[in-house]
Amino acid sequence: MPGRLGFELQHWLQQQPQNARIPVVFLTQHDSVEDRAWGLANGAVDFISKSLLAPSSIHLLALRVRNLVMVQESQGLREALAAIVSANHQINNRLMVIMSAAELLKRRFGDGGADAEDLSLLDDLIDAADLIGAWLHRLAAADRWQFTSYLEGCEMLSEPAAGPDAS
Amino acid sequence: MTDHPGSALVVDDDPVVLALLEPALQAEGLEVRTASSVDEALAALSSWTRIWCCWT
Hints:
By secondary structure, chain A is mostly helical. In chain A, about 60% of the residues lie in helices and about 10% in strands.
């Protein structure tokens, strides 16, 4: 084809924001140049001939789909990492407010002779905020983490440099 | 990715095509679902969150 079924489904996918980016591959038999143009203009990433369904070549067809899925997964990961970096800035700004307030309170209590338990609680707060800050610093460069080849064509994520110790 | 295989939804009104593609894609490590109509495909899409590839 793609016949009515293929075009109808693709049209429906394009209307749904959560589905609009699912890559669609058409298995084709005798579709016209016009059909192909419409499909490619509306989100189809590829057309594969139904002749590849033959036993001697179906593995080629499956490999093409697998490669497509791998590209799509990498793209999804990169977008997720970019979202982490964006959220990181928002969290970090609030963390700075918390840390400044805790330091200020500690100084005031210290001057006024507060009891040791209160000061210890403030130290716990500052220590925890410091640790969160260290992890945020590590995540701040998440969008520059490297995708490196792994087994069987899969990819893995690795940081370019070691982050802070999580002690 | 070895722990989280990609997914493919195969849609075709010809059951022979579905029967050929499902095992071939599974052999490449993909999680495969099949549908033989638009309604079946839409049901699969609404209940399945990790779909990367869709065939028609």
